[in-house]
Amino acid sequence: MKKLVPSLLAAVIILGAAPAHPASWRQALPGYRYQFPRDHGAHEAFRTEWWYFSGNLQDAEGGKYPFMLTFFRAGLRPGASRNSKSRWALRNLYFGHFSVLDAKRKKHRFSERISRGELEQAGASEEGLRVWLRDWRAESTGGEGGSSIHISAAAPEMKLRLDLKPAKPLVVHGKDGVSRKAPGPGRASHYYSYTRLFASGVLEMEGRKIEVRGTAWMDHEFGSNQLTKDQVGWDWLSLQLSDGRDLMLYLMRRKDGSVEPTSSGTLVEADGSAAHLRLGDFRFKGLDTWKSERSGAVYPMGWEVEVPAHGLRLRLEPYARAQEIESKGSTGITYWEGGVFAEGAPGEKKLTGVGFVEMTGYAPEGRPKF
Amino acid sequence: MSLTFSLLRLLAWRRLKEEPFRLLLTLVGVALGVAVFIAVKMANETSIRAFENSLVAISGKTQLEVSAGGLGVDENLILRLRAMREVKRAAPVIQQHVWIKKAGGSGARWRRGVPSQGRAVLALGLDLLGDNDFRGYEFENKYSREEILSRIADPQGLFIARGVADALGVGVDDFVEIEAARRMRFRVRGVLKPEGMAKSMDGRLLIMDIGVAQEVFERFGRLDRIDLILEGGSEIESIREKIQRFLPPGAIVERPARRGRDVEKMLASFQLNLTVLSVIALLVGCFLIYNTMSASVLRRRGEIATLRSLGMTARGIVVLYGAEALCIGLAGSSLGVAMGAFMAQGALSFISQTIRNLYAFLEVRHVFLGPGELLWGFGVGLGVSLVSSLFPAVAASRQSPHQGIVERQGIVEVRPKVIAVYVAGASVAAIIAYGLNLQALAGGTPLPGYLSAAAVILATALASLPVVLLGSIIIRRVLDGVLKAWLAAHGLGRHPHRNAVTLSSLAIAVSMLVSLIIMIDSFRATVEIWTQQTLRADFYAAPASRFIKGSKASVSEDAIQAIGGVSGVAAVGGFRAVRLPWRGERITLAGGDFRIEAERGRRLFLEGDSKETIMRARARGEAIITETFSNLYGVKKGDLLRLPAPGGVVAVRVAGVYYDYTTDGGFIVVDREFLKKHWGDDRLSALAIYLSENARPGDVRKSLEEVLDPTMVLISNSGLKKRVSNIFDQTFAITYALEFIVVLVALLGVATGLSSNILERVHEIGALRAMGLNRKGIISAIMGEATILGVLSVLAGLAAGVCLAAILIFIVNKLSFGWTIQYIFAWKGIAAYLLVVILASLAASWLPARAAAGIPIREALSEE
């Protein structure tokens, strides 16, 4: 343990391998009953939690700006007393990841933050959506149960302020309130999304102040021991289609190259009704690859997505290939997270879409341990 | 040159054969002087170095630190600092002292009312997740990252350095108990490798997360320090000024090294005292060499005359004697360095104990013995040997061939003119000493006081020749007809120069002894009178960790209520002491309950009545200050003190100055309500408990123990007085030890002086024996001479000692520490000590006397 912490932070999420008190963290189990707005807030009984926002923004000249802003909470000890009068009492670590791509200039920027939550420098309300990491924040406007969401983040040479208005009600993924990541009790999370949010606000990049609009996506997920030891990472996709439908898919990848059979997805109709997709119901595959010079990781690129029962056949391309993120100063995970655009496969009816793809576990260093 | 060396070899070898005893004594004397000198130097330096090393290790890469004395800084300040462009990292620090014990083991039970239990350790509260940029530390065991995080986040967990683990016999996952604001049980979550910070203070250190530390020390909302690392290329001084501008009053930003200077300053007077003593040991060692060399010169007048007749130059003679002194110096210094290294260890434990008692938490076990230190000691020993031999060597070189041959036969006559010069010299030195004292008092610095002491010693040395001659004459007159006494006195007067040197070294040692006895006795008596008069409460209560010097421990003021409710308790006074930065230094501001103080306490004011002064101070929001504070900072009654407080500067007028012997920095006392109002601090450092008249102390103590938190130590009035007295004794233990060595060296001087006398008088002794004086008679005569020398030394030393004591008490102590000490001459103790010195000089003469008696008559007479 050289120098206690930096490497330790590089560890994040901590959470998977050797749980110090496995019994004490609450497990994500079937039958969970969501209660909003409370469930927008933090769930400190669970070990890991994140609030994820991504979207594809556009300026008046048609410039494209995919963005991602994520707040992570990592619980350190289950059942830690919350009675301490010290504003330094250590219960959670908070991490923040913020990235923006200027698609035209192919400039991808990433910024990260970490905090132990001292002096209320970071935290998450347990009443509703209000999570912050110094001046990065996401909160319901008009109170914690309010209908629209404000997010903001600032880093050197990039600053984002967005108002997000849900175009559809939120969707709970999985079955019976749990999104399974592996076989066995508790190998799951509680996971819901706002799959389509109207976004409007201001993006500042390199001194330019840009009025932006677009569509965004929000995930909120919490659980305790989702990953198993034989899993290396996941491929995840969110997509908002021109016909009003939204799609979420994920594949849990195992060390032997196979895909966890519990991997699944959700298709949300234009009217907000949702259908659960099993692994056998869809196909999500990269047709090409891209090698990161920085991390040495080889990522799939140029994906083919099919959901035959719902008549979907799509080709996905990234706005830029170099959208890899190395979070050495916070979670330690190296992953690819980037804006993509979709077109109907040749011969299909004219369907387009925009979305985000997230791929973890490809870099030899920096695999996630959630 | 080579001739000189061969001569030297020849002469020195002969001397070694002739006078092994005297040479040995000289060597031991020089060695002791050198040993004491370097032992004190090394122990002093080691203790300072221990402070500085721990300071450096604990500040790590900190470039600037923000602090605000004992009250600490508002924790929100860290956010403002972090927002500064120039600040790269800002880390919170809580630094306290606690008692720690192994939980559940033998001796794990905390005994009530015993202030020092378990081990005193330095406790640091750090942001363990973000601190690595500042301080390096590693765990002995390898843990996974998640394991480390979980261990850090344990609110009942802490990390100990190897030193603590060894001292307590605990390891990872064992339980320990610490006494801080409360007694708390913790699990050892990791042991730190003995490196860097974890090695400082002999590894008596524990760390915990800052959140845990705030809980443990009930220090919510406050930090003891904020450590800063600046962005690269920053101009530290200008940033320091920029930060200082927005800090609230009372908070200061400074470089960490600054605290090291504070420690040095705090210890300076104490260490200077010891250094002066050690220098005296060295000086007495010088006299010894001077003595030996003078004897050697006198004894070899004939030899010198012969050499000079044979054409050796005066310079050659100086070189010859210088080389001889060099040999003694080399051998003595080598021995001294070896002994010094050994003695330093003992001196260190004395010194560190005193520092712990009086100044600050210090754990240091091993003397730092660098080659530089050893070389320095060696060089000093060699240097003083050469300097001491300079006069005898020059004297020898001035001798004309004729003079030597003639004088060898007869008595050394001292001309009246020479005596007059010595008397005049002694008088001038005495006058200078007096003048220096006046100057010290006028200037307010103790340095002229030390010079004055040196002048007194010089006067004593100069006066010793007249004293020897006068003594010899008086005794011969008074004891006319008593043959042995006459012989003894005659022997004394026969070699006045050499005997004067012997006398002066013993007299100087005696004067030091006398002055220290007077000073310590006076100090003790003064403190005793003071404790009798001012410690008036029946019980005192304080958190146990308060008994670690430098601790900032405090308890909630709820204790006043709890104690007040105990039957038999008439009144409870709360007392709070906090450190404040003031005029670039740190002073102590105290809050006392003035109403109770006025009614029940009795402080001794320089002027004015206690009750009246305190009541007036309470009514007008004024302060009273200790005499020490008044002396050190030149603050007088009626002056206005401008003190930094969180809300701005508070101006307080001084209502009175009172005597106090608790700390050497002194303090300002205000009414506790006033302290609460302006400094927003309502905690207590200690409580004074007064019982009602018919209460039974034993019963009340039991009830008090029930209501008090178990970490509070309850001390009865007599217990506290005893504690004060014990600390006093511990403090002066090293002074006594050093003094003992000085007297020992001086006694060696008596023995060598006499033995050279005897060698000088072999012929005379032979003649006496031939005339019918038996061996016993010879022994009596020689020992009588020693007794006379001893008595004369004691008388001269007593006279000088009384003066030195006055300098120590009225100048050095007053100006270094600010204490007023009543001059008390405890003649019984002094008489006992002096009798011991006379007996010891008698004993020292035993061997030379026997040697003299053993000289066969024929051999003695044929010497010529």
Secondary structure tally, helices of chain A: 1
How would you state the average pLDDT of chain B, rounded?
Answer: 83
Strand content of chain B: 15-25%
Point out poorly predicted stretches of chain A.
Answer: 1-23
Give the name of the CATH architecture of chain A. Beta Barrel
Q: Termini of chain A, distance in Å?
A: 22 Å
- Termini gap of chain B: 31 Å
Quick one: overall form of chain B? elongated
Biggest pleated-sheet summary of chain A: 13 strands, antiparallel
What is the chains' assembly state? Answer: heterodimer
CATH superfamily of chain A: AttH-like domain
Coarse structural class of chain B: alpha+beta
The dominant shape of chain A is globular
Spatial extent as radius of gyration of chain B: 33 Å
The helix content of chain A is under 10%
The helix/strand class of chain A is mainly beta
Which SSEs are present, and which pair or pack?
The complex is a heterodimer of chains A (370) and B (864).
Chain A: H1 6-9, E1 48-58, E2 64-75, E3 92-102, E4 107-115, E5 122-124, E6 130-133, E7 136-140, E8 149-155, E9 158-166, E10 171-172, E11 179-180, E12 188-205, E13 208-223, E14 231-241, E15 246-254, E16 264-268, E17 274-278, E18 283-291, E19 298-307, E20 312-318, E21 324-326, E22 334-344, E23 352-360
Antiparallel strand pairs in A: 1-2, 1-13, 2-3, 3-4, 5-6, 6-7, 7-8, 8-9, 9-12, 10-12, 11-12, 12-13, 14-15, 14-23, 15-16, 16-17, 18-19, 19-20, 20-22, 21-22, 22-23
Chain B: H1 2-18, H2 20-59, E1 64-67, E2 73-74, H3 77-82, E3 87-102, E4 119-126, H4 145-152, E5 157-161, H5 162-168, E6 175-179, E7 183-192, E8 205-209, H6 210-216, E9 222-223, E10 225-230, H7 236-246, E11 252-254, H8 257-299, H9 301-309, H10 314-358, H11 371-398, H12 401-407, H13 416-443, H14 447-478, H15 483-494, H16 496-534, E12 539-543, H17 558-564, E13 569-582, E14 585-592, H18 594-600, H19 610-620, E15 623-626, H20 627-633, E16 640-645, E17 648-658, E18 667-671, H21 672-679, E19 686-691, H22 697-707, E20 712-716, H23 717-760, H24 762-770, H25 775-817, H26 827-844, H27 846-853, H28 857-862
Parallel strand pairs in B: 4-8, 5-7, 14-18, 15-17
Antiparallel strand pairs in B: 1-10, 1-11, 2-9, 3-4, 3-6, 3-10, 5-8, 6-7, 12-19, 12-20, 13-14, 13-19, 15-18, 16-17
Helix pairs in contact in B: 1-10, 2-8, 2-10, 2-11, 2-23, 8-10, 8-11, 8-16, 8-23, 9-12, 10-11, 10-23, 13-14, 14-15, 14-16, 14-25, 15-25, 16-23, 16-25, 16-26, 18-19, 23-26, 23-27, 25-26, 25-27
